[in-house]
Inverse folding.
């Protein structure tokens, strides 16, 4: 029930409160508010929220000072509404996502609670907010460091592990020696396919956090390029899973078709082993992970597939079965190419970094 992020947030807020109490400066409650609002679990997320909070506080303070004096002749509700409308307009132009909410709180509290001491309250609030954001970022770097790159890589490794397991199960189902083929395969596979898609969506959702951490020109950073390469490869492999689930292997095929299924099963096993190597390289990384020393090794049965397909015995199977087999073999070839391209791009990205 208590995780590292919660402990880090509580510890950071406690340190901020202790420093504020010892300093004797007023309005120190804004330190804890800033820590709780900015602590998102990763450094990049905290950096994004912290910058939004500071910009919203500054924008709200400026509008409060200008409008409080400039709109003094209007009724207070109308003047407050006009000020909040101006904040929302400027916040949209500055592409603030949450900062304008903080600015709105500054305007309302300043107008209704601190109207007699805005010159003292606004600097104190901005100072304590800045201090809260700063110690939150320091806490994320010093106490159980939480970086967006580490989170993204961990998610990628988990997805690769799930793909490896899925490929092994698909190989077992298509293996002619396996007894549990046919009925029920699609119902089981669709659920796993959707789970893989959801994992990929979660990885893509971490990209804004990662970009916040990488400084200037984050789109050209090797970490960004490497994550895009992993996402593209995983997407193509997940497509293979969906295709194979929707085209289950047929039963009672001629012997040659059985050999084609065996080649497909051995290729799936080879790809599963290679994905396992990818996962290990990511989990043991120091900095950016390096590609495996050994590339994808194609089984002999898959390399001799063209000779098997030219055998006229294949024509003894029904057209529907042949179309299904052709579709499965095409998906496997695309997955094989996806792994090869992914490893080539992986090596090229590291060579340029």
């Amino acid at each position: 029930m208590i995780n590292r992020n919660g402990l880090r947030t509580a510890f950071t807020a406690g340190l901020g409160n202790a420093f504020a109490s010892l300093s004797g400066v007023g309005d120190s409650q804004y330190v804890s508010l800033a820590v709780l609002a900015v602590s998102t679990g990763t450094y990049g997320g905290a950096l994004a929220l912290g910058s939004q909070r500071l910009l919203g506080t500054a924008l709200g303070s400026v509008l409060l000072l200008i409008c409080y004096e400039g709109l003094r002749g209007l009724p207070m509700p109308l003047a407050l509404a006009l000020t909040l409308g101006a904040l929302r307009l400027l916040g949209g132009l500055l592409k603030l996502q949450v900062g304008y909410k903080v600015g709105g709180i500054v305007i309302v509290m300043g107008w209704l609670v601190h109207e007699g001491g805005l010159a003292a309250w606004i600097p104190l609030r901005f100072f304590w907010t800045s201090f809260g954001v700063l110690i939150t970022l320091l806490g994320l770097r010093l106490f159980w460091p939480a970086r967006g790159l580490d989170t993204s890589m961990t998610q990628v490794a988990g997805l690769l592990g799930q793909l490896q397991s899925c490929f092994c199960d698909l190989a077992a189902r298509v293996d002619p020696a396996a007894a549990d083929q046919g009925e029920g395969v699609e119902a089981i596979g669709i659920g796993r396919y959707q789970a893989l898609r959801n994992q990929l969506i979660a990885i893509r959702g971490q990209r804004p956090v990662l970009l916040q951490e990488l400084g200037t020109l984050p789109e050209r950073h090797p970490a960004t390029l490497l994550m895009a390469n992993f996402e593209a490869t995983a997407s193509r492999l997940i497509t293979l899973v969906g295709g194979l689930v929707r085209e289950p292997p047929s039963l009672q095929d001629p012997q040659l078709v059985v050999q084609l299924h065996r080649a497909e099963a051995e290729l799936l096993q080879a790809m599963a082993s290679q994905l396992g190597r990818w996962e290990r390289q990511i989990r043991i990384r120091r900095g950016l992970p390096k590609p495996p020393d050994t590339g994808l090794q194609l089984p002999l049965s898959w390399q001799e597939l063209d000779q098997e397909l030219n055998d006229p015995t294949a024509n003894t199977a029904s057209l529907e079965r042949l179309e299904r087999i052709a579709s499965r073999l095409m998906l496997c070839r695309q997955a094989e190419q996806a792994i090869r391209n992914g490893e080539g791009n992986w090596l090229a990205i590291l060579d340029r970094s």
Notes: The CA atoms of residues 72 and 79 lie 8 Å apart.
